[in-house]
Structures are given as C-alpha cells and as structure tokens.
Amino acid sequence: xxxxxxxxxxxxxxxxxxxxxxxxxxxxxxxxxxxxxxxxxxxxxxxxxxxxxxxxxxxxxxxxxxxxxxxxxxxxxxxxxxxxxxxxxxxxxxxxxxxxxxxxxxxxxxxxxxxxxxxxxxxxxxxxxxxxxxxxxxxxxxxxxxxxxxxxxxxxxxxxxxxxxxxxxxxxxxxxxxxxxxxxxxxxxxxxxxxxxxxxxxxxxxxxxxxxxxxxxxxxxxxxxxxxxxxxxxxxxxxxxxxxxxxxxxxxxxxxxxxxxxxxxxxxxxxxxxxxxxxxxxxxxxxxxxxxxxxxxxxxxxxxxxxxxxxxxxxxxxxxxxxx
Length: 324
Fold this sequence. Notes:
Elements: H1 3-31, E1 62-68, E2 87-88, E3 91-95, E4 104-107, H2 111-120, H3 123-127, E5 131-137, H4 140-148, E6 154-156, H5 164-168, E7 176-188, H6 199-210, E8 215-216, E9 231-234, H7 241-251, E10 259-268, E11 284-296, H8 298-307, H9 309-313
Parallel strand pairs: 1-5, 1-6, 9-10
Antiparallel strand pairs: 2-3, 3-4, 4-5, 6-11, 7-10, 7-11, 8-11
C-alpha cells in the first residue's frame, strides 16, 4: 500500500473512532449514567429550642423544722386548740409509728395528691419533703439555741420573738419573713372618724414591739386618708396588751384628741375579697398583716424558698383572735 493510501485509511479509522465515541457518550447521557449537575443543598431542620426554665430542684428527702409550741405566748394571740398533722400545700403527713419521740412525720403518697399538685400548680406540695421532723419549743430561746447548734434546718418564730442577739448577729439578722394567710392587727375608731392613724406611730410600734416583722397594711392596700395623732388603747384580751400599751404611750405623737383601740382579728388576709370582708366595717382600719420570721440554714435555703416560706409559717399553730 502506498503512503497516500495509509493516510486515507488512518483518516477513515479516526473518523470511525470519533463516531463511536460520540455514539457512546450519547448512550451514556440517555441512560442517566453521565455526570449530573449538583443539586442544591437542603439545610437540615434545626432542632426545636426548649426554653430554659432554670435549675430544677429535686424534692428534698428530710427537713428538720422548729415551731412555737401551742402554749408559747406571743403579743397578739394564743392557740389552745389541738394541733393536727402537718401539711405543706397539698402534701399531707402521717406520724411515723416507729419514732418514740413523735417528731417524725412521713409524707402520704398517693395518686390523688400527685394529681392535685400537678393540676393546681402547687409547687409547695410537689416539693414538700418526704420526711418532716417537727420540734415544738416552749421557749423561743431554746429554739434559737437548737438552730445555732445545727439541730434544725428551719426555725419559725412568732413576730417579735427573735432576740436582739440573733438580730444583731450577721449570720441570722436577715431572716425570711413569711406572711401568714390569717391574722391582722387593726385599730377601731368611731364610725364618724375618717382620719388615718399616724404612720410614724405605726412604724415605731412595729419596730419597738415586733422587730419590724409585721407587714404594714399600706403595702397591701394604700390608705389615701389624711393622718392625725391619737390616743391609743389596747384590747385587754391580747396577751401582750400591757407592753403594747406602754410602747404606744411612749411612741405616740402628742396632741391626739381621738382614741384608737388596737386589736387583733383572726381573719383571712390573702383572699381576693379581703378588702370587702365583713369585718371591714366603718371605723375599722387594718394596720398590719402578720409575718413570721423564719431562720433557715444556708444548705436548706434553696429548698425552703422553692417550697415557699409561707408554707412553713402555716405549720405554726393557729392564732385565735377577737373580732372588732
């Protein structure tokens, strides 16, 4: 074969090869095996954000609580009635029959109690301890000593009971102040008396007699009436009638021509209708709601606050009072 013929044959073979390659690429494209354009990336769905409700405290196993004995006197009221089993919110307790001292109370577990706590949002009942050790003290000083010794996690006192030594001690001078659901200090004037008592007199009474433990009623319900000085008397049925009279005689501003009588009434103060209650008659002015100082050991403070200090003040025996 000549050189020219070889060139023509190579050209034919090259043309045939190119055609074959073209046919192969076409078949690959039709069958979907060829390279594809990249698909747009789909962003993954972010996980749902759960709101942070803060640290959740587990229910504490045991709390040791000191309370005033029913026979322990205070300035405002007495309680001679029987004291029932302790209760914290919806949580109820039964006496531990194996405890000879009668101080240990075991939480009564049940589906009904759990449902009540969950439905009503009762954090006190939900977080109430499994075991409650309750000690009643005849004397406030003995209760202070027990707390200082570490024998109590929380100690409840009546208004004004904490000693000056405890109130001046940096470890104890800022107790929790727990509002009781019942009990108000009021003054009674004639129905025609439309003036309010002097705020200075009330502040001095709270400071001198109760160590500032009482809650001024004006913090709950402002009194827009003008103030005027007065002469004070105290209901003779109050256990602390005489010392209260002496304090009022010393702190009251001179120049009073009207008489106001200080009394204690055992009535609800936290209810929504307290402002329109039957005891709110003309001439009756609420002055203070009752708060109990509660000493709490630092290790138990978070648990006590999560339960609510009012629940511990409610553990103290009732306070009977006379009506205006």
